[in-house]
Amino acid sequence: MSSVIVYLPPPTQKRAFQLMLAQAKQVRDEGESVILTHCDLQAGTCSANLMGSRLICSACRYSTRKSVADTGLELVHLRQTQDESGALELARHDRTELLEGVNSCLITLVRVLKNDLNRNPLLRWIKRRNFRTATVLFKAMTALMKTRQVHRIEVLNGRYACMKIGLIAAQRFGLDYNTLDFSCVGRPMVFRGHTPHDRKAIQQRIRRSPPDEAIAQQYYMARKDKRFNPFAGRHQISAAPCAPRKTQKKVAFFLSSQDECESLGPEWRSPFQKSAEVVRQACEEFPDYFFCVRFHPNQANILSDITSEFRQLQHLSNVEIYYPDDQVDSYSLIEWSDLVVTFASTVAVEACWAGKAVVQLGPSFFDELGISYTPKSTSEFLQLLGTNLKASPRRGAAQFANYDMNDFDDLKYLEYSSGAGKPIGFCRKGSVFATPAKKINFLVNKFLRTAVGLGISHQLRP
Fold first, then answer.
1. CA–CA separation, 39 vs 80, rounded Å?
2. Are 164 and 247 contained in the same domain?
3. Which end of the chain is more exposed for a tag (fewer CB within 10 A), N or C?
């Protein structure tokens, strides 16, 4: 009988571990044969164990085995053996995909851009270890699939190398795959045949959501509510930029988190990656326009230098720049503007709902929803700036709101209550070891960020 492989994430990631175990039980109830797999290495380096600690690996192995024991599901240990370690040569595509997964993990956890990731000796050492771990797991997964009849693989998210091995293996053998993750309100989501960061597939799913006006109004009001949006809660300054009286058009640029975009892989590379240069050209091309630039508040925690190029624009008389730590309210800037320009920011759908003309520069989760203009180059963008742009219909923004709030997949073994999922009929065991292991990795990550931040600061000194 053909089987479904469900690859378990580390039990230190409690919510994700319970999600995948609940999915495995449900797939079995649907009549499928299920094979659970997990990392069984002694000192593997992954998102849950950045330094490859043997203690953390031991805690993960123990908690996984104890948790699975009562479910009646088969558990296969992925480990390196002498027979398998050199049995499979990685194709160039496999190596590239694994390396992208390693980069995604470290960019996300440490919050550095790719250039700094490759310059720092400590991060390069962790990258090598992470790549070696992923390679061993990929070879073990491939060896398993050669001995068992498998027709589908299911993994968590699929972005980090330690989980991505399942997707690469599925592609190598021409198999179906699913990825799972959580919605913005913490509900399970099953992405069939794609990942949560496949923007085209996600937008196809968004367009299946009804454009409910009442839901959308509630959603966008909640995003502006300081009680529910922590960024809005911190931003108490509502004063808009003071544009000269003869200003022809007021344009607000909204940046997204550069590290998040970089971590999503090559499909998210943008022709507008040099955002400061785009702003500079706009300012010089249209001296009678007034521009403001709003950094995303989340960018305050990026270790890489993301502000220097913008500080070089401050001599321009027709631009105001608000950096990550500035407390100006983004919604007041939307109201102030005649045109909103975004770089992958959710502000695009918010501005569309507010009745503003919107231009999106580069890929996003909203660029095919009909909410904006989407130029393909800087020259095309500058041509658009010189025209009288109209606001797009709000249908796509309403569909996005309904998707973000109400699109999820029910799992019979996870009960959703008060924003959290409670497992039914099983539980994560061995938490006495898994919880301290998670805390250790958190402290390691904190130390790593401090060390990397100091190194980058030293490099930036004149």
1. 10
2. no
3. C
Q: Which residues pair with 249 in a beta bridge?
A: 289
The runs of H, that is alpha helices, within 78-155 are 92-110, 114-119, 121-147
Task: With 0.85 as the threshold, say if the pTM is over it.
Answer: yes
Cα separations (Å) of 90 from 100, 136, 161, 169, 300?
Answer: 15, 11, 14, 11, 39
Q: Domains in the chain: how many in total?
A: 2
Judgement on whether residues 257 and 201 belong to the same structural domain of the protein: no
Find all residues with CB under 8 Å of 61, minimum gap 6, and list them: 38, 40
Same domain, 91 and 21: yes
Which helix (DSSP H) or strand (DSSP E) does residue 360 occupy? strand 357-360
For 15, the domain range is: 3-207+407-460
63 belongs to a structural domain = yes
Reduced to 3 DSSP states, what percent helix, strand and coil does the chain have, rounded to the nearest 5? 45, 15, 40
Place of tokens 């498998």: 150
pLDDT, tens digit, 9 for 90 and up, residues 53-95:
999 999 999 999 999 998 999 999 999 875 554 556 788 999 9
Per-residue tokens: 31: 């009549």
Count CB atoms within 10 A of the CB of residue 444: 17
The verdict on residue 419 lying in a domain is yes
Please state, in angstroms and rounded to a whole number, the distance separating the CA atoms of residues 458 and 101.
Answer: 28
Considering the domain architecture, whether residues 246 and 332 belong to the same structural domain is answered as yes
Q: Exposure of 77 by Cβ count < 10 A (0-12 exposed, 13-18 middle, 19+ buried)? A: middle
Residues 35, 127, single domain; the answer is yes
> What's the token pair of residue 389?
């742009």
Q: Of 399, 418, 447, at which residue does a domain stop?
A: 399
Residues 75 and 91 in one domain: yes
CA distance 114 to 428: 35
Residue 216 is assigned to a structural domain of this protein? no
Closest CA to 369 of 178, 214, 250, 216: 216
**Max intra-chain CA distance, the chain:** 76
Structure tokens at 255: 């940046």
Cα–chain center distance at 455: 26
Q: What is the pLDDT of residues 156-212, one digit of tens each?
A: 999 999 999 999 999 999 999 999 999 988 999 999 999 999 999 999 999 999 999
- Do residues 275 and 312 both lie within one domain? yes
| Residue corresponding to tokens 């992470």 | 130
